[in-house]
Amino acid sequence: MVTVRQAVSSDAALLHRMARRLHVEGRDWNSAQATGFFLYVGSEADYSRKLSESPYCYVAMIDETPAGFLTTVTPEGVAKHPSEKNRALFLDNGQYPLLLEQIGVLPEYQGRGAGQAMLDRMIGDFPGHRIVATIIHAPLRNERSIGFLAGRNGWQQFREVRTAQRLWGFYERRGPGS
User: Fold this and answer.
1) What kind and span of H or E run contains 78?
2) What is the pTM of this model?
3) d(CA 176, CA 28)
4) Element (DSSP H or E) covering residue 174
5) d(Cα 165, Cα 154) in Å, to the nearest integer?
6) Which of 25, 70, 91, 168 gets the most CB atoms within 10 Å of its CB?
7) Tens digit of pLDDT for each residue in 8-47?
8) Is residue 167 within 8 Å of 161, Cβ to Cβ?
9) Average pLDDT of the chain?
10) CA-to-CA distance for 99 and 130, rounded, in angstroms?
11) Cβ–Cβ contacts within 10 Å for residue 150, how many?
């Protein structure tokens, strides 16, 4: 059975360990595309700070065992990004979205509803109308994440942004009143 709880600062070490397992580095790229992957693994301090700054971060449990996590950056956090150029990528009608930063489920628990349960909880808890996620398109396309957000959950791609080393897809979910 899948349960989802709000993540708290003391979960930082747990999130760090799970993120390290989901990190693409050292994994077969074909299997990483199929199972999803993280490019970035924050330190325990990074996760602790993130969890204390956003109430929309979660841990999925399957049979009382941690199976995955979801982290976000609040609209206020996005508005404080140090790069004006990066902030502008998210701004819409004078408002910033909730940024879905990382969502991952350990491979042995995938296909059992943990990712969907965390996504549904985040959407249900967030009172705003717009949520955005960025997903890497190149050099390694995160097919699993694209399929999950865009294919299965109907999020719409609204832009692609090329950086020096990567191509990013920007996906959004707009709720009622958007």
Assistant:
1) helix 75-79
2) 0.95
3) 40
4) strand 167-174
5) 28
6) 70
7) 999 999 999 999 999 998 788 888 888 888 889 999 999 9
8) yes
9) 95
10) 9
11) 17
